[in-house]
Amino acid sequence: MSRGRLEAFSDGVIAVVITIMVLNLRAPVGAGLHDLRPLVPKLSVYALSFVFLAIYWNNHHHLLQLVDHVSGAALWANAHLLFWLSLTPVAAEWLGPHLRNSTPVAVYGVVLLGSGVAFWILAHSLVAAHGPDSRIALAIGRDRKGNLSLVAYVLGIAIAPVLPALSIALYVAVAVAWFIPDRRVERVLSRPDGTSE
Amino acid sequence: MSRGRLEAFSDGVIAVVITIMVLNLRAPVGAGLHDLRPLVPKLSVYALSFVFLAIYWNNHHHLLQLVDHVSGAALWANAHLLFWLSLTPVAAEWLGPHLRNSTPVAVYGVVLLGSGVAFWILAHSLVAAHGPDSRIALAIGRDRKGNLSLVAYVLGIAIAPVLPALSIALYVAVAVAWFIPDRRVERVLSRPDGTSE
Amino acid sequence: MSRGRLEAFSDGVIAVVITIMVLNLRAPVGAGLHDLRPLVPKLSVYALSFVFLAIYWNNHHHLLQLVDHVSGAALWANAHLLFWLSLTPVAAEWLGPHLRNSTPVAVYGVVLLGSGVAFWILAHSLVAAHGPDSRIALAIGRDRKGNLSLVAYVLGIAIAPVLPALSIALYVAVAVAWFIPDRRVERVLSRPDGTSE
Amino acid sequence: MSRGRLEAFSDGVIAVVITIMVLNLRAPVGAGLHDLRPLVPKLSVYALSFVFLAIYWNNHHHLLQLVDHVSGAALWANAHLLFWLSLTPVAAEWLGPHLRNSTPVAVYGVVLLGSGVAFWILAHSLVAAHGPDSRIALAIGRDRKGNLSLVAYVLGIAIAPVLPALSIALYVAVAVAWFIPDRRVERVLSRPDGTSE
């Protein structure tokens, strides 16, 4: 099956998810500068969630560049990833006004963890379909950064009942760590024997 | 007429439909764990509807891979399918808090039935345009799974006034049955004389 | 300039416009069959608007198939068309519960007229850029159906203060007339000297 | 990295941003002509914002036509631009009913300025990756129109506390100035040694 339409559909879903998040930022009723204050935490959570979704889009893009064909299992692994990503807006909407409350902070982490695990499943289903010597298997490798992110999310969820501020710091740290696109993939793509798109 | 833009437009509509459904999941006002409870049935209905839409996207993708050209009639058959799929969010919004009520359960089934019938019309209009010996005619064949799904939807609607829980069980059963991409299409696509995209 | 990205962007906008219209169909609060009654006129207006937008998508698709290059003026003519189409949801939202009220019926006609005029401008700016002997000039020709539609919209708006029901009948008649894709374009595309995409 | 998927993703986000702005135009409750009056300022702000987003889409399109490859830094510069553009709907929602209030007028200018700066960063990161003799470097050149726009936005923000009407006049003037697609790019593209797409 062609990967083009899978990319187009995933792009569409991520583009809509990223954009409808902005619907949570309702304009204030009043027209003064102080009316903007309640928007500040919502805007911060929006920016963080935007970065997370952009990271997934980037990594998804990199991942599929290494793929020749997409199996039926990978289609569902991809839909599973999109399902978790589509929960980001409601988790962000809840977190916005409740940055110091344990449950919204933990639930936001659960959505991050679900998305991370779903990406892991997608990557490994693609590796499984292409074999251990494929370009994608080399590029994914041991995936230390991905695994450490999952650990950070689990820690963030576990810490949230006690120290929600530290959970948020962990989430931000993961976003910063992923800010730079995946060097491993770029390394493989730029090899003499690797044909980049 | 080219099939590429038809696919792109359908992908766009399905991607938006799948994503705006998440707007029904409003974040709770309170910040406690128990505030999440009313979200649970809504989230279940969202997951079920997400799976249905992903199934349609998968099957739509498979179907159009077998097509060389798209007639004017098929364009309208496709728009008709998108119309029914676009009613999924409002049917899901109504079903979410009313899982035990006959009318919302029946109405959800009507939308499923409408989508199923529309897919049947689209598939058969494509078969009609390509002839009985075309790859698509072979792939669709007698379409037992599709016809059984329609029967299940009709049963679900008929049972809803008496046993809405059984109706929902029927809908879930259809989703599970379609979870696996259409083997018939894959079989034809992998034949020596079949040129897959 | 390439026409591909223009098509993709227009598809995206139309797909989102067509889908957010469904947000007007809020699920009823109650769970009985009679709770569905207020949805019936809204659903009818949604179906009519869906058909209009699908017609524009079809005709847009046909139109651009005949185009080799897109000028800067055509880009803005296209944006102008998308602007009018994007007003369809709010006009439909107002018309839904006010099918017998003059102003909402007239305003809906104004949006139809604006879209029709914008399509006319786009088509003629493309004809102007390709010359009077181009395939697109032949296909558009005198454009009797397009011009008659504009007349019908003007009549509908003029009649609305007196007989809104007749205005709606006029709008429906135009939709039915355009239901069939543009034969003129298909005729030119299938000519021996015409290279269809 | 291929530029195609970057274009598709950006198109998707801009298409959704442009369309969800229309959600701010809620249909009036009443059905009279005077019920439309509160919509007039909102519609004006919607039209202005639509033009700004269409300008960005046009210029983005022109810019990427000159690009051979997209670096990781440019991906993030592009995401940064999309972030600012995605704030347009909420800034427009606030401005709509508050056209004479200093803070909403200034905040709208901040979103315009942020988008302008983000476009500047994207353009210059692409120039940096392609070298000073590349087509894109020639096309961007000293970018007088872009720089003047940023100055106009800063002036608009600074003037807003005193004369918000003048700020809005400045924003409108910038929109008018950019209405015509970038001649510099078209000049380079049409050179004998420039291969247009």
* Assembly state of the chains shown: homotetramer
Distance between the termini of chain A: 17 Å
Beta content of chain A: under 5%
Which structural category do the helix and sheet elements of chain A fall into?
A: mainly alpha
C-alpha-based Rg of chain A, rounded: 18 Å
Would you identify the regions of chain A where 5 or more consecutive residues have pLDDT less than 50? 192-197
Helix share bin of chain A: over 70%
N-to-C order of helices and strands of chain A? HHHHHHHHH
Number of helices of chain A: 9
* Structural domains of chain A: how many: 1
The general outline of chain A is: globular
Instruction: Report the major sheet of chain A.
Output: none
Q: What is the strand tally of chain A?
A: 0
Biggest chain-to-chain interface with counts: A-B, 30 and 36 residues
Structure description:
The first copy, chain A, has 197 residues and is an all-alpha fold. The first copy, chain A, has helices spanning 4-20, 39-65, 72-86, 88-95, 102-130, 135-140, 144-159, 164-178, 183-189. Chain A has one domain (4-189). Chain A is built from nine helices and no strands. Chain A is globular. Chain A starts with a helix and ends in an 8-residue tail after the last helix.
